[in-house]
Design brief:
Layout: E1 4-7, H1 12-19, H2 28-35, H3 37-50, E2 54-56, H4 64-70, H5 76-94, E3 101-106, H6 121-135, E4 141-147, H7 150-162, E5 167-171, H8 187-194, E6 201-205, H9 209-219, E7 226-230, H10 256-269, E8 273-276, H11 282-295, E9 298-300
Parallel strand pairs: 1-8, 1-9, 2-3, 3-4, 4-5, 5-6, 6-7, 7-8
């Protein structure tokens, strides 16, 4: 059977850093979408043209907590609708001969990487279920991503399953030890915790590619469909709740061809879902597309076979 992978897009937020002249904001990508929506559409377009078959909505910073804290004048429903509109504009502008999938991001509800400010299971479950309910009629699937702790990941996985939609769970692991989440909890235990909710894929994201490789070896043992999309940061330690993404630095040794070498390893391990996270741009996705074309690997828009 011909090998195939689901090809996701890359990191939208850091692309906006490169393209927008606006000062960084705690709601960075959401704030740019409010003020300069064409920039977000342009990035969606460019990922489509690079070969991505799955476009993720610009909803990573859209949760009630984050909006209430940093943009109380904005409604959750309006921001979700805006994200869908700018994505559809970008896809239309790409003028593709094929269709792409649209997935919604289900992010850490309070802050990335920091489990100490995460809501408890019940609170997280209620919030995730609302986010899924509001969007499920208009997107193809959900990415519960950058999960740094078991409680939040389990709550999101349960919400996805209870709403009866397609969804993947993506964990972020330590930059120095791929066997643990950023909370210090075991990756193996985290996988066991979400498996009862039958996620459609288990992914590793927003971790350095070296750790994604090691973590995928653990995920592969689960028997679930799996994959990864790494970041291109030197470290995420400088980012604390309420701070802005300009605190983080881009690696200088992770261009498209260098990133592709990691992707090849992931595919050899059996990964079926591939993409990029922060600092992984359209040129990286284009390199993956070109490689797949050369090797006869089919790229698909289906999160599940």
């Amino acid at each position: 059977m011909k090998k195939q992978i689901t090809l996701l897009d890359g990191g939208l937020g850091q692309e906006l850093i490169k393209r927008s002249s606006a000062p960084p904001h705690p709601l960075w990508s959401t704030k740019v979408m409010m003020d300069e929506p064409h920039l977000v559409s342009d990035i969606h377009r460019d990922f489509c043209l690079a070969g991505a078959k799955v476009i993720c909505l610009n909803t990573y910073a859209v949760s009630r907590h984050r909006l209430n804290t940093f943009a109380p004048e904005e409604s959750l429903e309006h921001m979700l609708e805006t994200a869908l509109q700018v994505a559809n504009t970008g896809i239309s502008d790409a003028a593709l001969s094929h269709k792409v999938s649209i997935v919604a991001s289900l992010p850490p509800l309070n802050a990335s990487y920091d489990h100490t400010v995460a809501p408890d299971f019940e609170s997280a479950y209620t919030q995730y279920r609302e986010l899924v309910s509001l969007q499920k009629a208009r997107v193809d699937a959900f990415l519960l991503e950058t999960m740094s702790n078991i409680a939040e990941a389990s709550a999101g996985a349960k919400a996805i399953r209870d709403e009866g939609v397609v969804g993947a769970v993506a964990f972020t692991v330590s930059d120095s030890d791929a066997t643990v989440l950023r909370s210090g909890e075991s990756l193996e235990e985290a996988i066991k915790a979400v498996m009862p909710f039958t996620p459609d894929a288990i992914l590793i994201n927003c971790s350095i590619p070296e750790m994604v490789t090691e973590a995928l070896k653990i995920v592969a043992k689960s028997g679930a469909r799996f994959g990864g999309y790494a970041n291109g940061f030197t470290s995420v330690e400088a980012l604390v709740p309420g701070s802005t993404v300009d605190r983080l630095s881009q690696r200088k040794d992770l261009g498209p061809e260098e990133y592709l070498e990691f992707v090849k390893t992931w595919i050899d391990l059996g990964a079926e879902v591939i993409g990029g996270c922060c600092e992984i741009g359209p040129s990286h996705i284009a390199a993956i597309t070109d490689y797949c074309d050369r090797e006869g690997i089919m790229t698909t828009k289906q999160l599940v076979p």
